[in-house]
């Protein structure tokens, strides 16, 4: 226990000395070989290099439009040249399209406004799926932000994290029923996984979910203070984590995502950090701590990692997304 606390204090103090603006920030800090590097903080589209044209700026000036900044980003999904984030304060989804140099705002279907948009994911056609935990629905829009349809199975109570598998199944984490509901992309009900409890394959207020390249489901079982790994059919495979103060334990695990080497990144809203584990459940690294400087978090929620290992973290109470990159993948490769 003392060794764990000593390591944690050392990491925090060393990070603090490198957290100032203009100083390269990496993990682990020197003299160790760096594996992850801080890239930027994202508050609005300008921070992603999306610049408005002269005519757009003139239009905004005439009609009073302002550049929208994030207030409470929550769910996040990054794919190709697009970054998607829900914002629970503005009840909106923002789509930052770096290739087309534009931002799309979505805050309603044709008939109703979002009340509490939580997570977002896209399918291979670019359609956008948004979970609303209060409406108890999944809303689907096309890539341009036009509403298509919604999914609302009768058993769905409090949808939070969502994910889409390669065989086109939609996995919906239900925090209230402590289950994972499975539908087709059109909303046909295919079954439910788990129940409330603390046993293997049971959940207590789960939140986010990711699907590995091998098709396994990785679920943040938040109030059981652990991560569970399941087959695509929902059969229990493995678990790790427990409630505790030492490194490797969890307070409230939330966001979860895998890099291209199948290392598992888990955010924790209680500890305000990201812990990284390999497939053997061994802790590889701890990223960040509470604060508002670069590489620090205040309510670290969802995580999304791209194919080229760019790491996006919804830093909710700091009103921003933080972007990191894996710069030494060989050193973080999961041991077999």
List the helices and strands and how they pair.
Blueprint: H1 2-18, E1 26-27, E2 36-42, H2 54-63, E3 73-79, E4 82-87, E5 92-97, E6 102-106, E7 117-122, E8 128-132, E9 137-141, E10 147-151, E11 159-164, E12 169-174, E13 179-184, E14 189-193, E15 209-211, E16 217-221, E17 226-230, E18 236-240, E19 253-258, E20 264-268, E21 273-277, E22 283-287, E23 300-305, E24 310-315, E25 320-326
Antiparallel strand pairs: 1-2, 2-25, 3-4, 4-5, 5-6, 7-8, 8-9, 9-10, 11-12, 12-13, 13-14, 15-16, 16-17, 17-18, 19-20, 20-21, 21-22, 23-24, 24-25
What multimeric state do the chains show?
single chain
> How many helical stretches?
2
Residue windows where pLDDT falls under 50 for at least 5 positions: 1-14, 53-59, 61-65
Strand content: 35-45%
Strand order of the largest sheet: 1-2-25-24-23
Distance between the termini: 27 Å
| Radius of gyration (Å) | 19 Å
How many individual β-strands?
A: 25
Q: What's the overall average pLDDT, rounded?
A: 89
Quickly give the structural class: mainly beta
Task: Determine the fraction of residues in helical runs and give it as a percent range.
Answer: under 10%
Shape: globular
Order of helices and strands: HEEHEEEEEEEEEEEEEEEEEEEEEEE
Task: Profile the largest sheet.
Answer: 5 strands, antiparallel
Question: What labels would you give this structure?
Answer:
336 residues; mainly beta; 5-stranded antiparallel beta sheet; 2 helices; disordered N terminus
Describe this structure in words.
The N terminus is likely disordered. The longest helix is centred in the first third of the chain and has 17 residues. Helix content is 8%, strand content 40%. With 336 residues, the protein is mainly beta. The chain has a five-stranded antiparallel sheet with strand order 1-2-25-24-23, with no helix packed on it.
């Amino acid at each position: 226990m003392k060794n764990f606390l000593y390591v944690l204090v050392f990491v925090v103090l060393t990070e603090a000395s490198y957290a100032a603006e203009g100083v390269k920030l990496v993990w682990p800090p020197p003299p160790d070989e760096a594996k992850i590097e801080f890239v930027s903080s994202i508050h609005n589209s300008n921070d992603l290099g999306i610049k408005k044209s002269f005519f757009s700026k003139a239009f905004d000036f005439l009609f009073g439009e302002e550049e929208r900044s994030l207030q409470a980003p929550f769910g996040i999904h990054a794919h190709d040249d697009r970054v998607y984030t829900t914002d629970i304060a503005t009840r909106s989804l923002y789509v930052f399209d770096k290739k087309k140099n534009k931002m799309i705002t979505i805050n309603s279907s044709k008939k109703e406004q979002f009340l509490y948009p939580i997570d977002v994911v896209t399918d291979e056609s670019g359609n956008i799926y948004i979970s609303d935990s209060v409406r108890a629905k999944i809303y689907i829009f096309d890539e341009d932000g036009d509403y298509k349809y919604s999914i609302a199975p009768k058993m769905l109570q409090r949808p939070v994290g969502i994910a889409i598998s390669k065989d086109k199944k939609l996995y919906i984490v239900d925090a209230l029923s402590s289950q994972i509901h499975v539908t087709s992309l059109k909303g046909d009900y295919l079954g439910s996984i788990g129940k409330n409890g603390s046993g293997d394959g049971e959940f207590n207020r789960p939140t986010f979910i990711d699907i590995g390249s091998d098709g396994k489901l990785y679920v943040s079982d938040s109030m059981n203070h652990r991560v569970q790994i399941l087959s695509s059919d929902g059969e229990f495979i493995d678990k790790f984590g427990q409630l505790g103060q030492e490194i490797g334990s969890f307070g409230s695990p939330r966001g979860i995502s895998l890099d291209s080497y199948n290392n598992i990144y888990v955010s924790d809203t209680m500890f305000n950090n990201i812990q990284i584990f390999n497939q053997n459940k061994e802790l590889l690294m701890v990223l960040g701590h509470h604060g508002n400087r670069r590489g620090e978090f205040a309510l670290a929620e969802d995580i999304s990692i791209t194919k080229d290992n760019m790491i996006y973290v919804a830093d909710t109470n700091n009103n921003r997304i933080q972007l990191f990159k894996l710069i030494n993948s060989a050193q973080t490769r999961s041991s077999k």
